[in-house]
Specification:
Strand order of the largest sheet of chain A: 6-7-8-3-9-10
Number of domains of chain B: 2
Structural class of chain A: alpha/beta
Structural class of chain B: mainly alpha
Helix content of chain B: 55-70%
Low-confidence stretches of chain B: none
CATH architecture of the largest domain in chain A: 3-Layer(aba) Sandwich
Strand content of chain B: 5-15%
Strand order of the largest sheet of chain B: 2-1-3-4
Low-confidence stretches of chain A: 297-303
Number of domains of chain A: 2
Oligomer: heterodimer
Number of helices of chain B: 19
Chain lengths: ~300, ~450
């Protein structure tokens, strides 16, 4: 069964079409990553799934039911901007949010989650005394405290340090193991690559990617070479057969033309500097994202 | 419905658990009656230094009377009888002989003495003061001082001067001094309630004395209580909703609850806050009335009406405050919206006097039937000793219920859109569009 099903969903704000005829099926028990540039329609889509925004046309089903009433209790939602009552105590706030979703055994759940996130000593402290990272964790607990079957997280990793990021990441994967469906939006392509069973990309309100990472990468072929060079400052852009160079400093990622011979390109580079590593690879999600939504596309679109 | 209840309980506890609420509960009535209280407390805060007043008496018969009256006052009123504390200034009267040759120069010199502080002021009684109907230039009395218009001495002088002049007039008419008291006895007209027949015994009851303070105290207290309690429950919704919106709490809540339910929960929370305050004030009021033994001046039948109107007023005005809060984008916006939102509770305060004087006039009746003003004005009118026809509170109630449904519905539509809207505050025309088109 699909946890979420969108069919021909469109949402406009005045003259702006935020989401256009969107179809989407999120299978149960999977981790689904929403990517897309700022303002592409990710949050609008998530808000429509949450029934916060009503679509102008199209249909949304959650667990095969029309979105209304009790079905919203089966969804946990963490919006992009965190919203916690500053004057409430951590424990009281979690019970309040859990209660709004008709959560069961909330006191026990609160203790377990606070223990798990190392926040037990903050249970009776007011939210305003927490650090930003701690607030983020509390917001995450508030989302999952009612044990929802579908968890929707809008930018769950933004602003988190690596330690807290790992904690949230591991927790999401554990929730998946328990059979929950997780949809999250992110700007971090590495996170999306490592965590998501499916990746969905929306661009200017329209779906441009919706598949497993492997299938997406297959579609873009083996046109990427990752290199580590002894001299990182060598200019690779003039080499015949190279269409794009991404220089990350210690790592160079080049895209080659369709008919180009990677071995020949390697030989040319070897003539310029020593090569520490050379890997013919599928394009990274980052690269695919930039190919779709980067300046090149903009130029093509404007041309 | 239990989600609505959870929102209500959270909001209620968040409001009443603060020190501000408890302090406010005690302080607000004090502030409301603060000016009256301050006047009572500070009325004895007077400058007790002796005040020297010069008298230029062109009649030649009044100055001595002022001296005598001042002496009598200094003996009786300046010192507190029990403690012996000085509580008022003595009036020291100095009779100045008139300078016939240069009267203006004399008054200038006296004025200079006042400026230097040697003299507090001086009074000039013109020669024909005994015949006041004649030429004004010759008959009036003038008091010169730094703050002559508000000076207590000016008011005090009126009595001894007039009493003396009146005696002189009577003497000239040949009327004995002993007849004077009866001749000038002044009777007031006593207000009485209407005569009623006792429903149990059938006897005609004596009409109760209708005192002025009885007539105004209940309506004014009802109005003030309604005002305080509406502000306590309804107006905080504007800021509360705006903060939830700006802190993005609203979006989290809307993931669990419909916008209308959220607003409803907040309104119920506001009503619970109001009822808490109302219970405290009404209980305290009933206790005070019993202790003072003045329960007969309070028409107890209006207390249930008070609660019904109060609940509806908080619903009606609270929904407007919540809608405006949802449309506001920053604190400045919220502040500028507060005043227009307060108008429904301010207008009844402004028109209190005419309504109180003539609660049955067309003006009072129609104004009290305007739903936004009904809760406050109907309570004022019902609190007056004569009361109002019983159909009026019922008609008012129907109007308030209908208007409350309308305002909650319209506010719900504004709330639904406004609560998620970030950025600039929408114009009024756009808000109206939200109401019409949803």
């Amino acid at each position: 069964m699909n946890a979420v099903e969108l069919a021909g969903v469109t949402k406009t704000f005045g003259t702006l079409t935020a989401v256009k005829a969107l179809d989407l099926k999120v299978p149960e028990g999977r981790v689904y990553g929403f990517i897309g540039p700022n303002g592409s329609g990710k949050t609008t889509t998530l808000r429509m799934i949450m029934n916060i925004y009503y679509p102008d046309s199209g249909e949304i089903k959650i667990f095969n039911e029309k979105l209304q009433g009790a079905v919203s209790d089966r969804i946990g939602y963490m919006p992009e901007e965190r919203g916690l009552y500053k004057k409430m105590k951590v424990g009281e706030l979690l019970i309040f949010y859990g209660g709004l979703k008709n959560g069961k055994n909330l006191s026990k759940e609160v203790d377990e989650w606070l223990e798990r996130f190392d926040l037990m000593e903050w249970k009776n402290k007011k939210i305003e005394t927490l650090s930003k990272g701690m607030s983020q964790k509390v917001q995450f607990i508030a989302t999952v405290i009612s044990q929802p079957e579908l968890i929707i997280l809008d930018e769950p990793f933004s602003g988190l340090d690596p330690v807290n990021m790992d904690i949230i990441r591991e927790t999401i994967l554990e929730l998946q193991k328990e059979g929950r469906t997780v949809i999250f939006s992110t700007h971090d392509m590495n996170v999306a690559e490592r965590m998501c069973d499916y990746i969905f990309m929306i661009y200017k309100g329209e779906k441009v990617l919706d598949d497993t990472l492997e299938a997406i990468q297959d579609r873009y072929g083996d046109d990427t070479i990752r290199l580590r060079l002894a001299n990182a400052h060598v200019n690779l852009t003039g080499i015949n057969g190279i269409t794009k160079v991404n220089n990350f400093g210690h790592l160079q990622e080049i895209r080659i033309a369709e008919q180009a011979d990677p071995q020949k390109i390697l030989r040319t580079i070897l003539g310029m500097t020593a090569v520490k590593s050379f890997e013919i690879a599928k394009p990274s999600l980052h690269d695919i994202f930039v190919r779709i939504a980067g300046p090149e596309t903009m130029e093509v679109n404007h041309a | 419905m239990h989600k609505v209840w959870r929102i209500a309980v959270r909001d209620y506890l968040a409001a009443v658990k603060t020190k501000g609420f408890i302090i406010g509960l005690a302080v607000v009535p004090v502030i409301m009656s603060g000016s009256v209280l301050a006047m009572i407390l500070l009325k004895d805060q007077v400058d007790t230094r002796g005040k020297k007043i010069a008298v230029i008496d062109h009649t030649g018969i009044v100055a001595e009377a002022i001296v005598d009256a001042a002496r009598e006052r200094n003996e009786k009123e300046v010192y507190e009888e029990n403690t012996g504390d000085k509580i008022k200034p003595e009036y020291i009267i100095e009779i100045v002989n008139m300078d016939q040759a240069n009267p203006d120069q004399q008054k200038l010199e006296l004025s200079d003495q006042v400026r230097r502080g040697d003299l507090h002021g001086f009074v000039e009684i013109f020669p024909e003061a005994i015949h006041p109907s004649q030429n004004w230039d010759e008959t009036h009395i003038a008091y010169y001082a730094k703050n002559a218009a508000l000076d207590d001495i000016r008011r005090w002088l009126i009595s001894p001067i007039n009493v003396r002049l009146r005696s002189e007039r009577l003497a000239r008419l040949g009327i004995a001094e002993t007849d004077e008291e009866e001749l000038f006895a002044w009777l007031s007209v006593e207000g009485r309630n209407l005569i009623e027949r006792d429903t149990k015994t059938g006897d005609v009851q004596d009409a109760q004395k209708s005192e002025e303070w009885h007539a105004v105290v209940v309506p004014i207290i009802m109005l003030m209580l309604m005002f305080i309690l509406i502000l306590m429950g309804a107006s905080p919704l504007l800021n509360a909703v705006m903060e939830e919106k700006l802190q993005r709490i609203a979006e989290v809540l809307l993931g669990s609850i419909q916008p209308f339910q959220l607003m409803l929960g907040k309104l119920i929370g506001g009503i619970m806050v109001t009822l808490t305050g109302a219970s405290v004030y009404i209980l305290a009021g009933v206790f005070a009335v019993m202790q003072l033994g003045i329960y007969q001046i309070v028409p107890m039948y209006i207390i249930p009406w008070f609660f019904i109107y109060l609940i509806l007023a908080v619903f009606m005005l609270g929904s407007i405050f919540a809608a405006l809060g949802s449309a506001a984008s920053d604190v400045k916006d919220a502040q500028s919206m507060t005043f227009p939102a307060m108008i429904p509770v301010l207008i009844p305060m402004f028109i209190l006097t005419p309504v109180l004087k003539e609660p049955l006039s067309d003006f009072s009746t129609w104004m009290s039937l305007v739903p936004l003003f009904t809760p406050m004005l109907m309570m004022v009118r019902m609190g007056t000793p004569q009361g109002i026809p019983m159909w009026q509170p019922w008609v008012g109630l129907v109007g308030v219920i209908l208007f409350t449904i309308l305002s909650v519905w319209a506010s719900g539509r504004i709330f639904r859109v406004g609560i998620l809207l970030q950025g600039s505050t929408p114009k009024l025309s756009r808000i109206i569009k939200w109401i019409i088109k949803g």
